[in-house]
Structure formats: C-alpha cells, structure tokens
Amino acid sequence: MGAQHTRDFSSPDDTFAVGGLLSQRVALGAHTVSRAIHQPGWRWSTHARTTGMADSCQTHHVGYALAGTMRVVLADGTEFDVTGGSVFDIPPDHDAWVVGDEPYEAIDWVGARSWLAATRTLSTVVATILFTDVVDSSGQARRRGDSIWNDLNTTLTQQTRETVSEFGGDFIKATGDGALAAFAGAARAVGCGIELAAMAPHLGIAIRVGVHTGEVEVIEGDVHGIAVNEAARVLAAAAPGEVLVSEVTHAIVGGAAFSFADRGEHELKGIGTRHLFAVTKAR
User: What share of the chain is helix, strand, coil (3-state, %, to 5)?
Assistant: First the structure.
C-alpha cells in the first residue's frame, strides 16, 4: 500500500469529551493533528481538575483557530486572546478559557500528541529498541547522485523491514537514512542487528546499530520514552558496522547466544554515563 496523504476528522484515531470540551486526533505519517471544540464557559484551570490534571496546561500549542475566542494567560502574567482566523504559538504552563458565547474551535499540529495525554489510556510495555543508520550517508548520496542513492535507500528500508519481521519485531518507521524497530525479546533484536549489519555491505554501504531495552509508551504505532532516546544515543556511539548494545540489553541476553566485546563506559548526551558492549558474533 502507498503512503496515506489525507485524513478526515470524521474518522479520528481517538476522541475525548468532558466538561464542555471535545478533542479529536488523527495521525498522518509522522505527524499528529488535533481538532478541539471548547464550549462557552470552559476553562482549563477549572475543568482540568475533574480529570486529575495540573491547574496549568503543560502543552506547547501551535495551530490555527477556526472560530471563537480563547483568552490565554501565561505563567509570567502575559495575557492575550486567540481569535478565529489567527495562527497561534502558546508556550507551556498557561491557563486558558473561552470568551463570549461562541464555541472556540482550533486545529493543533504541535502539541497534539501531549494534549490531554494524561487522560488517555496509553500502552506501556518493556521493549528492546533497535536503531540503524547508514555510515556517511551524506557522502554516499554525493558520490552516487540523488537518484541512485534514493533507490538504494529504498532498497535498504525494504530489506530492513523484512529482516525485522523475520526476527519477530515491529518495524516502527524509517528515519531518513536508517530505521527504528521494537522487539518483545532482546535476543531477537540483537540477532536482527547482526543480520542487518552483515547485509549492508552487499549494498555497498555500512550501517551502525544501537540496541537498548526499557519501558516505552506505544502511541498510534509509534514508540516514545526515555528508553527510545537512550537507544538513539547508543546508536550514536556505535562504530561503522558495529552492533552496540546497552548494559541492560547485555544483561538480559547474557552470554549464551552471543559473544560480546566490552566497550567500556560512554557519556551519552542527555542520558549520562553508560556501559556499552559490542556484539562480536552469534554463537
């Protein structure tokens, strides 16, 4: 099937309705868009309490107001109105309420994922996250030319998707010159990483692989959380052709199925110091 390029709010992925608010969300590729209708009398600091949320909204909203008026008060006391026909950028930590007798309706394209997130049922699981990327992808594209590189990248993505499936994983998404996948089992993820790293030279390229295990939130087919960020940092520390795993993944897999080389401690940006291990071979 080809990529989906349009969605209709008549068939949203989820709908939330409480206290004079109706919110609908749709996902389209890597993006999530929400439409919210607030009835006259609605106010965040009043109605959020009924759902157990904070008195101020912690979401960063960027979008377009379709109708009505919303008054916004920021944490520093700045106050302004968002009216129908205007584009808005509202920073987190604010209160807001409907002004007048007309419902306020708006479309959000930033903040749609986190808006009212605490009121939704999210799927939280422990998963092993695998990231890949192509070594020197910019140089590869420059040397080969855009057309050849795009064809090669498409082939790589398809083969990655198939290999992930063979190892029982879920191909989450392509990441430009790499991929993100999730596995229920750490050994499956590591085995898949070895297969992918061995496959790449047949395409005339080298890839690096990063693997980490932790708790993630699954939202609309994508994975989120600190564990995903840590897996990305493990990937960044990997050498060309290397499958690098976190200490957590190494401990789960053990030495029965794979041989490892101790790569020592690495400072992972935004994460801290972590002990990493390179997979040398499957036993």
Answer: 25, 45, 30
Nearest to 107 by CA among 81, 87, 80, 79: 87
Burial class (CB in 10 A: 0-12, 13-18, 19+), 158: exposed
Q: Which of 49, 43, 4, 45 is nearest to 26 (CA)?
A: 4
| Contact assessment for residue 131 and residue 209, using Cβ atoms and an 8 Å cutoff | yes
Query: Please, where in the chain does CATH 3.30.70.1230 lie?
Result: 123-282
pLDDT in tens, 28-54: 766 789 999 999 999 998 877 555 566
Residue 85 and residue 212: Cα distance in Å, rounded? 45
Average pLDDT of the residues of the chain: 88
Structure tokens at 214: 């932790």
pLDDT at 120 over 80: no
Euclidean distance between CA atoms 133 and 116, whole angstroms: 33
Question: What integer pLDDT is reported at residue 20 of this predicted model?
Answer: 86
Cβ–Cβ under 8 Å, residues 179 and 131: yes
Sequence letter at residue 49:
R
Superfamily for domain range 123-282:
Nucleotide cyclase, GGDEF domain (3.30.70.1230)
Its pTM surpasses 0.70: no
CATH number of 14-118: 2.60.120.10
Q: Which residue has the tokens 């198939």?
A: 162
